[in-house]
Amino acid sequence: MDVINLVISDSENRYRILRPIGTWGPDFSLIVYEVLVIDSENKASRAAFKMIKETDDLHEMVVDDVNRSLRLGSDRGCRYILPIISAFYSQIRDDITLCIVLYYDSHVVSLRSLLSTNPDITDGLHDKFLRIVLVRVLKALRKIHKNYNHHMQITAGNIFYNAQTDTIQLAYAASVYERYPTSNDGNLFSVNKMLSWALAPEVIDEEAMEFVYFYNTNKSDIWLLGIAALELAYGKIPVESRKELLEIARYVSEVKILPNSWEALRQKTAELIADRAMPPKKRKFASTSQASNNALSTEMEKRLSVCFGNFVAACLDADLDKRASAKQLKRHGFRKKNAGSMQHFRDVIVKEKNPHVARLFSVKPKRKLEKMEKKQIPKSPLGPRS
Question: Which of 103, 121, 224, 276 shows a CA-CA span of 20 to 30 A to 171?
Fold first, then answer.
């Protein structure tokens, strides 16, 4: 259905659909649009916009995502979770459609976008900036887990710098979507790769699986946090298979030392695998500690601290009993160090290279679904709308 230039209204604003900007949904098959938002005073701003018909099989799941996002968004203790702006029902070409309005480029920017467009950090964030980001993401994740939910889609693309609140926020549930890649996004995880390759070993055991609907444990989110930390540390994760990514994760969890570049990490992983395939007497590394010492000795200046390497290793242990929980990571030495100031992060990482993010949205968040007249919309899982 062609919806470009279509105008949709709620009780306060009009939304003109401009262009597709990304995808969303459990298998990322639905389209996210950029819209021009025109308020009652004819002031214009821009937002991201999702739509799903009430008759769609995924409608109930999306309603649940919206309600979870609104519930957490109304909690003052959830300042590190990116809220949605609003959600409402509209009749679009004879179909009752749930519309979700999200913050967009003039308000927020994803760290994946920053990594791909800022030449100073295309090879990854400095250790001190990693700490600023991960401390806040971990706080958001703990809040999600305390509400008996899982995230299941933690990536650098779902971690945002919010210009209005001047902080790092994790997109969750209804605010999650995948941006179309920019011209500089080469060698990043594609959507399908991230869905099928980056999930924890206990979640899927076959590469062909594209997405999951649920977890059995919060620790599967911790694994994704570790993978996201690697993407933030190296700028991208170019791997050729899920098997290779799992091998790299195993290396990190055992050696606990991260080299300065992704290529060096791949090389050291391959060296350790080859060494273990040798007869015991011919092995270069008789123990994991020797491999760690070798990793430390090969680089004179470490860009990524040993403490950060330990943090990522705690996230990427394949053994669930040994993998850290969000509560345990809160007490980790990397987390407890001075995380630095958001002003420093903004001035170095965001402001100089992305001045557009300083323009703030004029659209204010709402805390509940808009309601239409009863005669326009039939009953739904949300209950009667009056």
Answer: 121
**Residue 297 CB contacts under 8 Å (≥ 6 apart), including other chains:** none
Angle at 254 between CA 251 and CA 255, to 5 degrees: 75
pLDDT at position 359 is: 41
User: How is the chain split into domains, by residue range?
Assistant: 7-106, 109-355
Which residues, in sequence order, are CB contacts of 109 under 8 Å at separation 6+? 160, 161, 163, 350, 354, 357
In the prediction, which pLDDT does 178 show?
84
Q: How many CB atoms lie within 10 A of CB 212?
A: 17
**Hey, what CATH class is 109-355 in?**
mainly alpha
Diameter of the chain measured on Cα atoms:
80
At residue 362, the pLDDT reads 33
The H helix count followed by the E strand count for the chain is: 12, 11
**Cα separation, 100 vs 67, whole angstroms:** 11
The 3-state secondary structure of 179-199, one letter per residue: ECCCCCCCCCCCHHHHHHHCC
357 contacts 109 by C-beta, under 8 angstroms:
yes
What CA–CA distance (Å, rounded) separates 322 from 343?
36
* H helical segments located in 118-241: 127-146, 191-197, 219-234
* Protein fold of 7-106: Phosphorylase Kinase; domain 1 (3.30.200)
Order of strands, sheet of 108-110, starting from the edge strand that comes earlier in the sequence:
81-82, 167-171, 159-162, 108-110
Rg (CA), the chain: 22
